């Protein structure tokens, strides 16, 4: 008591007391002022939305939903409608837009006002140069440089490499089928996808499917295994403290948040070193990475049009990660849906057999492109389980969308998961039904009711490659095997939001049955 009395006496008689009181008042004002109703209305207008808490906004809801953001925003969608406000990743309110007419305007017609994405966390170098996070002319320069990589001609060249990786997968699945045990298809597909992207995009031989210690496989897999709890706590700091996103760029926090991802950058550095040595010896393979390196070294290009070394590193890392995690997750979910819907699987196999009748003939680019029902299956899987559940944009200037004013600096959130499960656009929206993507169904539906890859100039640059790769991998699997539910298979399907929306940490257990 004597100590407490002394402290109170000091605060009441000394200038320190005045300073402390002022700081407390300022801290309380800082924590309360942005979340007052009058402040929200002044920023985004009189919109409904979940009530924010002082200091935290709506960030605590993410903990309540155990990090499952798609479920959090789906509940918001049902409660507050297609235009509301919420506090996420900022002390400023964001506007959540689900009205498809407004979505089209902000992604296409008014793209010049919404070409950037907001960022809650200031990424360390070189990750701050990823095409997904850069802004303005930097984004445009990188996008323009990389777009030719995904032409039809480039993908045709990749087909023999993809077939080679599939040959290894088929052999592994044949061995697994003989054991009469369930297989974790997610684990098999992780090895396939990282091996395929290393060979087709980076021109490197990989043994990711046969060697769990393969450096590419280990780096990509570890990049997905940061501590979820630690990551949430540290990102929460960045959302709640003034300047938090800059504090988190300090080296100690860099490694705690992004450590394993930075190991993927280290792998990219090693790959670039090998590729540069090959190019110096006249052995460049003219793949994705070679093209970026040529752009970096091309002295005929003005400096403002070249890629920097950090930009090459960042794009290499993000393509490794996206090609590994997104594709393996989505393919695994497709496999589960086919196993639990054998009639749909049989129809897909009939299409594959009719197009690819001679197994002595390699599966070709044109064959894969003509497998329309297989693409319907993939599209339906991506409708139910979009890897990215929310698309984000930021207003770069004051503008008006369908009569609604939006101020410069306002974050925009488009809840993809909820839109793609809206019964207004899809009959039985929670049912797996590839007929949602028949020609007739697509023609009768607003195209913006389906956007796993986004829309407009800032859509996913690798969309065509991803769809082609998934179709090819599935065609190779379904030509040889039927996917069957076993005692270990979890039904209904369990999905989990980690880095992307996909299968849970235990993967997907299925049984295989040889067709030939």
TrEMBL record:
<dbReference type="InterPro" id="IPR002401">
    <property type="entry name" value="Cyt_P450_E_grp-I"/>
</dbReference>
<keyword id="KW-0492">Microsome</keyword>
<dbReference type="GO" id="GO:0005506">
    <property type="term" value="F:iron ion binding"/>
</dbReference>
<dbReference type="GO" id="GO:0020037">
    <property type="term" value="F:heme binding"/>
</dbReference>
<keyword id="KW-0349">Heme</keyword>
<keyword id="KW-0812">Transmembrane</keyword>
<dbReference type="InterPro" id="IPR036396">
    <property type="entry name" value="Cyt_P450_sf"/>
</dbReference>
<keyword id="KW-0472">Membrane</keyword>
<comment type="function">
    <text>Cytochromes P450 are a group of heme-thiolate monooxygenases. They oxidize a variety of structurally unrelated compounds, including steroids, fatty acids, and xenobiotics.</text>
</comment>
<dbReference type="InterPro" id="IPR050705">
    <property type="entry name" value="Cytochrome_P450_3A"/>
</dbReference>
<keyword id="KW-0503">Monooxygenase</keyword>
<dbReference type="GO" id="GO:0016705">
    <property type="term" value="F:oxidoreductase activity, acting on paired donors, with incorporation or reduction of molecular oxygen"/>
</dbReference>
<keyword id="KW-0560">Oxidoreductase</keyword>
<keyword id="KW-0256">Endoplasmic reticulum</keyword>
<comment type="similarity">
    <text>Belongs to the cytochrome P450 family.</text>
</comment>
<feature type="transmembrane region" description="Helical">
    <location>
        <begin position="233"/>
        <end position="253"/>
    </location>
</feature>
<dbReference type="GO" id="GO:0005789">
    <property type="term" value="C:endoplasmic reticulum membrane"/>
</dbReference>
<dbReference type="Pfam" id="PF00067">
    <property type="entry name" value="p450"/>
</dbReference>
<keyword id="KW-1133">Transmembrane helix</keyword>
<dbReference type="InterPro" id="IPR017972">
    <property type="entry name" value="Cyt_P450_CS"/>
</dbReference>
<feature type="transmembrane region" description="Helical">
    <location>
        <begin position="12"/>
        <end position="32"/>
    </location>
</feature>
<dbReference type="GO" id="GO:0008395">
    <property type="term" value="F:steroid hydroxylase activity"/>
</dbReference>
<protein>
    <recommendedName>
        <fullName>Cytochrome P450</fullName>
    </recommendedName>
</protein>
<keyword id="KW-0408">Iron</keyword>
<keyword id="KW-0479">Metal-binding</keyword>
<dbReference type="InterPro" id="IPR001128">
    <property type="entry name" value="Cyt_P450"/>
</dbReference>
<feature type="binding site" description="axial binding residue">
    <location>
        <position position="460"/>
    </location>
    <ligand>
        <name>heme</name>
    </ligand>
</feature>
């Amino acid at each position: 008591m004597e100590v407490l009395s002394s402290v109170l006496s000091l605060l009441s008689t000394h200038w320190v007391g005045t300073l402390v009181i002022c700081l407390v008042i300022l801290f309380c004002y800082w924590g309360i002022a942005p979340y007052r109703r009058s402040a929200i209305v002044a920023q985004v207008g009189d919109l409904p939305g979940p009530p924010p808490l002082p200091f935290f906004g709506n960030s605590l809801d993410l903990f309540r939903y155990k990090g499952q953001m798609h479920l959090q925003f789906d509940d918001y969608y049902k409660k507050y409608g297609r235009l509301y406000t919420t506090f996420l990743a900022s002390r400023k309110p964001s506007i959540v837009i689900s009205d498809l007419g407004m979505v089209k305007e902000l992604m296409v017609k008014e793209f010049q006002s919404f070409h950037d994405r907001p960022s809650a966390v200031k990424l360390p170098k070189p990750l701050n140069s990823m095409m997904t996070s850069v802004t303005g002319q930097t984004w445009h320069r990188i996008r323009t440089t990389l777009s030719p990589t995904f032409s039809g001609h480039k993908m045709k060249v990749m087909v023999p490499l993809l077939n080679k990786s599939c040959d290894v997968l088929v052999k592994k699945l044949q061995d697994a089928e003989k054991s009469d045990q369930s297989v974790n298809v997610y684990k098999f597909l992780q090895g396939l996808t990282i091996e395929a992207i290393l060979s087709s995009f980076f021109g490197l031989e990989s043994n990711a499917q046969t060697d769990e210690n393969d450096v590419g496989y280990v780096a990509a897999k570890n990049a997905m295994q940061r501590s979820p709890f630690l990551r949430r706590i540290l990102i929460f700091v960045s959302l709640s403290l003034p300047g938090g996103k800059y504090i988190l760029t300090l080296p100690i926090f860099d490694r705690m948040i992004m450590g394993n991802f930075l190991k993927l950058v280290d792998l990219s550095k090693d790959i670039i070193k090998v590729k540069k040595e090959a190019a110096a010896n006249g052995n460049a393979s003219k793949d994705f990475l070679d093209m970026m390196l040529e752009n970096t070294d091309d002295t005929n290009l003005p400096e403002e049009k070249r890629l920097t070394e950090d930009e090459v590193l960042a794009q290499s890392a993000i393509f490794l990660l996206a090609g590994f995690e997104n594709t393996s997750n989505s393919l695994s979910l497709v496999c589960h849906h086919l196993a639990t819907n054998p009639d749909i699987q049989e129809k897909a196999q009939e299409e594959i057999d009719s197009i690819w009748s001679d197994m002595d003939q390699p599966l070709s680019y044109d064959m894969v492109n003509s497998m329309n029902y297989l693409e319907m299956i993939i599209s339906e899987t991506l409708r139910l389980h979009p890897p990215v559940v929310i698309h984000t944009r930021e207003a770069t200037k004051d503008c008006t969308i369908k009569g609604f004013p939006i101020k410069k600096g306002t974050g925009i959130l488009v809840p993809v998961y909820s839109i793609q499960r809206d019964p207004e656009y899809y009959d039985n929206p929670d049912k797996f039904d590839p007929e949602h993507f028949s020609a007739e169904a697509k023609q009768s539906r607003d195209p913006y009711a389906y956007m796993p890859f986004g829309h407009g100039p800032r859509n996913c640059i690798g969309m065509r490659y991803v769809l082609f790769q998934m179709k090819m991998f599935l065609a190779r699997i379904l030509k040889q095997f039927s996917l069957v539910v076993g005692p270990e298979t979890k039904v209904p399907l369990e999905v989990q939001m980690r880095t992307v929306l996909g299968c849970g940490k235990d993967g997907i257990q299925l049984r295989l049955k040889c067709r030939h």
